[in-house]
Specification:
Layout: H1 16-31, E1 44-49, H2 55-66, E2 70-74, H3 88-98, E3 101-106, H4 111-118, E4 123-128, H5 134-148, E5 154-159, H6 166-175, E6 181-186, H7 195-204, E7 208-211, H8 214-217, E8 223-226, H9 237-243, H10 251-254, E9 262-264, H11 285-303
Parallel strand pairs: 1-2, 1-3, 3-4, 5-6, 5-8, 6-7, 8-9
Helix pairs in contact: 1-5, 1-11, 2-11, 3-4, 5-6, 5-11
The chain binds phosphoric acid mono(formamide)ester.
Length: 314
């Protein structure tokens, strides 16, 4: 069982056993949502989005509402005293006087940790710049576990913007804690995986290869994780234009993949997965977005101390 009243800033904040417990609780909620519809009665969550979001914001808000709790917050910081120059530290202190839990997205790396140090309630990192996106990783784990029935013995290909992709950094560092995982990093040279991630793999002796060729990497993957080249992280518009369509997954390219490979994408997508792929049974990214709501329900319950006793390996 998790300790009560803690924040989630980095997927490494949870042990592997705690991750399995969260996944089990999410699975229980998915199977019997009505049993949990009053789990957070009387609780209030602040949803503070300093950067645009569809999935993370709406799935968190839906999750809290479906647990019987209530939500307040903003998706446009210009309507708050941030516009008058209030510091993030003061905003954290103030908002945490009103609510039981804060969900924070911010474009600057490290902001979630800074915010959590000044808040008097748990803070969930809903994405901090190009750094980490731990609740997307929980979503990805639930999706992989649901489709592959395991989080071990997997070869995972990650394709696209590995440099700025916070979902990628969180997933790789988290999956590096499971047994017999290997990675294939598929990107142009300009968007390679940062060394702070590969250093972790090197230290643990976890195998990975780096390539710029999607087709030749496909044949022995169990999971293909596509990602968007993120215009908002580029300093140069010209560089973005040059790289944005470097990978486009099509039915033709999928001919090289195993029948039971699954295709994940944190979304939103732009051009990197052709819409024709949506009909392929291996394309699970829309289901993945739905799983995001159930794992966030499990996370909210857990951080508010309402976790039921679940055996992580049940
Ligand atoms: N996957 C994800 O973080 O999507 P949003 O930016 O829409 O929240």
């Amino acid at each position: 069982m998790l300790k009560k009243r803690r924040s989630l800033i980095d997927p490494g904040d949870f042990t592997v056993d705690e991750l399995y417990s969260l996944l089990k609780l999410a699975d229980n909620i998915l199977k019997q949502p009505e049993k949990y519809s009053h789990a957070c009665d009387g609780k209030l969550m602040a949803s503070l989005f300093y950067e645009p979001s569809t999935r993370t914001k709406f799935s968190f808000d839906a999750a809290m509402n479906r647990l019987g709790g209530r939500v307040l917050g903003f998706a446009d910081p210009s309507t708050t005293s941030a516009a008058k120059g209030e510091t993030l530290a003061d905003s954290a202190k103030i908002v945490s006087q009103y609510v039981d839990l804060i969900v924070l997205r911010h474009p600057k790396e490290g902001t979630a940790l800074h915010f959590s140090r000044h808040a008097d309630c748990p803070v969930i990192n809903a994405g901090d710049g190009g750094h980490q996106h731990p609740t997307q990783t929980l979503t990805d784990l639930l999706t992989i576990k649901s489709y592959k029935n395991r989080l071990t013995d997997l070869k995972i290909g990650l394709c696209g913007d590995l440099k700025f992709g916070r979902t990628i950094h969180s997933l790789v560092t988290c999956m590096s804690r499971f047994e017999n995982i290997s990675f294939v990093f598929i990107s142009p040279d300009e968007l390679k995986m940062p060394s702070y991630v590969t250093d972790i793999l090197d230290e643990k002796g976890i195998p990975y290869t780096e390539t710029d060729d999607l087709e030749s990497s496909m044949a022995d993957l169990d999971v293909l994780y596509m990602s968007r080249v993120q215009r908002e992280r580029f300093v140069s518009e010209e560089e973005y234009e040059r790289l944005k369509d470097v990978y486009i997954l099509t039915n033709e390219k999928l001919k090289y993949a195993k029948d039971d490979m699954i295709i994940l994408h944190p979304l939103p997508r732009v051009n990197e997965i052709s819409p024709e792929v949506d009909k392929d049974p291996r394309a699970v990214y829309f289901h993945q977005a739905r799983y995001g709501m159930f794992i966030r329900m499990a996370l909210i319950m857990t951080l508010l101390g309402f976790n039921e006793e679940v055996s992580p390996y049940a």
